[in-house]
Amino acid sequence: MNKYRRIIPCLDVKDGRLVKGVHFVDLQDVGDPAEIGAKYSQEGADEIVFLDITATVEKRKTMVDVVRRTAKGIEVPLAVGGGISSLSIIDELINAGASKVSINTAAVKNPDFVIEAVKEFGSECVVIAIDTRKSDSLDSGFEVMIKGGREGVGIDAVEWAKRMEGSGAGEILPTSMDTDGVQQGYDIPMTKAIAEAVSIPVIASGGAGNLEHLYKAITEAKADAVLVASVFHFGKHTIAEAKEYLSRKGISVRM
Fold first, then answer.
1. Where would a tag sit more exposed on the chain, N or C end, judged by fewer CB atoms within 10 A?
2. Number of domains in the chain
């Protein structure tokens, strides 16, 4: 059976507001995450990702009240990331309406945390986010970054994805720091390297600027899903247009 490819709008949230930047900086205010999340849900998003982008750097947990408000208005799965460093925070977020959580810095600092989270909540609830940057010193050519992409840790991104799959994670969400917000296309080599190394779903993230970029992420980079921000936030295309475009090109999507 041909599996559906998912279209996932991404809500980057700072101080309770939806923002969008370039390379994780130069943020512009885009609106209220709950309002825009509800709109994307109605427009046919397969899932929504909510990232509290400064939680880790500010050493605080995710804004649970904003998550609760966002979850209330949507009818599709909600994945939440940013500042998730304990089982109690995951529990709180799931009680607030999150379907799954995305763990990044905390996984790098304590890989056993992922094993504990999977044991407690199940693989389907645990997404591993990997922020990457090109690096000539690592075999794959891509280094893992933490703290909102501010700090390199010298770990090979592909090897890390394999390790996290081995720890029981249900999905991998790799975002290229090099392409994020530039709207010139996803980092195909990085996404493909990770997708070919693991058997769990990989969500392409960072850099979509047009519908062709989504198609290439699925066909060339072998992504199971595409995370999209600027294209939808700034009204370039709707979710329906994205799905129609992919469907016309032979990609199975939920219409």
1. N
2. 1
Single out the residue of 132, 144, 138 nearest to residue 23, CA to CA: 132
| Per-residue confidence (pLDDT) for residue 1, from 0 to 100 | 42
Residue 187: both structure tokens together: 């980092």
Residue 2 has pLDDT above 70, yes or no: no
- The tokens of 202 are what? 């990989």
Residue carrying the six token digits 């041909």? 2
Q: How far is CA 144 from the centre of its chain?
A: 15
255 occurs within a structural domain: no
Residue 207 lies in a domain: yes
Residue 59 has pLDDT above 90, yes or no: no
Give the range of the structural domain holding residue 91, as residue numbers without chain letter. Answer: 6-248
Catalytic amino acids?
Answer: 12, 131
Q: What is the reported pLDDT for 180?
A: 75
DSSP per-residue codes, 74-137: -SS-EEEESS--SHHHHHHHHHTT-SEEEE-HHHHH-THHHHHHHHHH-GGGEEEEEEEEE-TT
Average pLDDT over the chain reads 93
Say which residues have a Cβ less than 8 Å from residue 178's Cβ, sequence separation at least 6.
23, 132, 133, 134, 187
Higher-confidence residue of 194 and 24: namely 194
pLDDT tens across 174-213, in order?
Answer: 999 888 777 899 999 999 999 999 999 999 999 899 999 9
Burial of 229 (0-12, 13-18, 19+ CB in 10 A): buried
Q: Is residue 26 part of a domain?
A: yes
Q: Is residue 182 situated within a structural domain? A: yes
For the domain that residue 116 is a member of, what is the CATH number? Answer: 3.20.20.70
